[in-house]
Amino acid sequence: MTANKAEENRRAAAAKESPEAKNSFLSSERTHILRLTARILKHSVSDSDDVFSTALLAVSEALDSYDEEKGAFWNYAALVIKSRILDEIRKNSARDMEIITDPASFSGDIDYDDDSASITLKEEINRKTAVYTDNDLKYELEDLEKELKSYGVDLFELPEYSPKSEKTKSACSELIKKFFDPPPLTELFKKKKSLPVSEMLKRSSMNRKTFDRHRKFILASILIRCGSYEAIGAFLE
Question: Which is it for the CA torsion 183, 189, 191, 197, positive or negative?
Fold first, then answer.
């Protein structure tokens, strides 16, 4: 172990001795935490991003439980940061996944601008996923992250490509459902290792420009439905 790493570990171990020591450590290591979070996410992060707050809390948590004898602090902190980011994804999945959930599967119509309707939807999602543990969802998210990477898609960038307007949400939902209509395009998808765009667009009213804008989101949605993602898939039922 280098002298620098040994010193870092000693500082981390000492930081949990008092709130002042911890705050001092977190303040002095903000840049380090930003860089580490960016490496984990594989994209730039600023201290104004929500994910940085998550990472900062994760490092604080890591300081509380760090044992200097068990290894380097920042290796341990990186694991805690990644775990907490995955937890945040899980918590936000209800919001992100609801845009491709069929409202007809619930009682009554859902107004997405109505807060009470949104809460009802989330309660229903929680009921559907109650049989799964946090680890089930965490492991599935890790597997999905790996599978998406094989298609050149980063799990953490999906919200950027998610449809925002009700019209586009509906168009994406229709396209995804049409993908599985008889005869399903699953085999063609697996054979080509890419979405059969022409065949998909023939089945829906979506234009190519809209498809290209939301391709990564559509791909992820189809992979979830095709794969062994039971806990994540419960959001889509």
Answer: positive
CA distance linking residue 192 with residue 228, whole number of Å: 20
Q: Which residues of the chain does CATH 1.10.1740 include?
A: 3-88
Identify the pLDDT of residue 114.
Answer: 37
- How confident is the model at residue 178, as a pLDDT? 92
Burial of residue 120 (CB within 10 Å: 0-12, 13-18, 19+) is middle
**How does pLDDT run across 68-79, given as a tens digit for each residue?**
887 889 988 888
Burial class (CB in 10 A: 0-12, 13-18, 19+), 73: buried
Residues near 65 by beta carbon (within 8 Å), at least 6 away in sequence? none
Q: Are 184 and 190 in contact (CB under 8 A)?
A: no
Which stretches of the chain drop beneath a pLDDT of 50? 94, 97-132, 235-237
How confident is the model at residue 14, as a pLDDT? 92
Site of tokens 């998808």: 189
The DSSP 8-state label assigned to residue 1 in this structure reads -
Residue range 3-88, CATH number: 1.10.1740
The model scores a pTM over 0.70 = no
- Residue 45 DSSP label: -
